């Protein structure tokens, strides 16, 4: 790649120039592999999420708009929506049941970037190499945007970083596919940043709004890139401007350096985590620890046994609330419920979040009995490591399991075969091996071929 960082002064323009210059040949082999796996994992999450009530509501809303048929709702047989609306629906579906990937920058890149990129690639009939390049640009831009904000600081102000930073990632991916020049890409980033939003108020009552954040971010990115292509200008200092730049607006501890440091040389997207459990990624270390305790102490779990859970400040604020049964999301965000389900059931998958389980008196009692402990040592690790520990009393002593990095993280990765099996487990009605074969070699195939494999006649809306 011929892009010279030394010729660019402003950070926003530096990122824009990098996106506009990026080519498939610039991507390391490992990065290409991560992107292919991200495509497969996000599609699996999206097809599963298609049947959730919140995705159905959004799809009905989008179809009532009578949009141009540019892109496909994943699982449908043909294009039925314009690209931005397809990205909105598919992004919401991918994030619909807390199965989608996440990054320690405290966001979910797959559910934003992949739906936006696939919708735009389908509209343009772009090739697989272009799609992989665009997704890489989107992930990297989205993750670096969050790192520059200081994700823990922004989170503690109540921001959901998937919604705040997601439009940057979606816009970057679409700008890449549309082959926007550096100036147009800077406008697209500016238009994306001015649409960034999403707060954690959903945690008050387990509201559906969290499911919307990823889809809306994908929609905003498509809109930003399409407007920029028409000459609609956006602020070309969207990150760094003193009055209203996103770094100052969203965080009291932001630092512009991570946005551009080693850009094109260090790929933060390679550190994306794949979820083995159907709940908040910040709870995954606790599930790992609880499952280990269950194996060591035996099942069925003795509900009278005392259990302690160590939390960092951010996880305590985010997931340490008292558990009361309401919605599936309320349980998916609760470390109490996640640990209780792991101890009682030995798994934390979609069945643990059906209405019967959410209202199970024994599970509720176990969740409420857990003793949550603030641990300053975990504060020092988070969010570089989503660490946690669970301890259980046994024969007068405490047996404690510490987890530095959870299953599915780069330290304990889930490979392409594992992602394929995850896809099969949540979408058994689909030709999973054929889908995986195309997704994991997407450079040799078309987006439309991949989408055609997602169709099933047995879909039944809930």
Structural account:
By secondary structure, the chain is mainly alpha-helical. The chain has helices at about 10-20, 30-50, 55-65, 85-95, 110-125, 130-150, 150-155, 160-180, 180-195, 210-230, 245-250, 255-260, 285-295, 315-320, 330, 335-345, 355-360, 360-370, 375-380, 415-425, 430-440, 445-450, and strands at about 305-310, 370-375, 390-395, 395-405. α1 (about 10-20) crosses α9. The longest helix has 22 residues, at about 130-150. The model is unreliable at about 1-10 and about 455-460 (pLDDT under 50).
Write down the Rg: 21 Å
Overall spatial form: globular
Helix content percent band: 40-55%
Tell me the number of helical segments per DSSP (H or I, 4 or more residues long). 22
**Percent range for β-strand residues:** under 5%
Secondary structure topology:
Layout: H1 11-21, H2 29-49, H3 53-63, H4 83-94, H5 110-124, H6 128-149, H7 151-156, H8 161-178, H9 182-193, H10 209-229, H11 246-250, H12 257-260, H13 284-297, E1 307-311, H14 313-319, H15 328-332, H16 335-345, H17 355-358, H18 361-369, E2 371-374, H19 376-381, E3 388-394, E4 397-403, H20 416-426, H21 432-439, H22 447-452
Parallel strand pairs: 1-2
Antiparallel strand pairs: 1-3, 3-4
Helix pairs in contact: 1-9, 2-4, 2-5, 2-6, 2-20, 3-4, 4-5, 4-10, 5-6, 5-8, 5-10, 6-8, 8-9, 8-10, 9-10, 13-16, 16-18
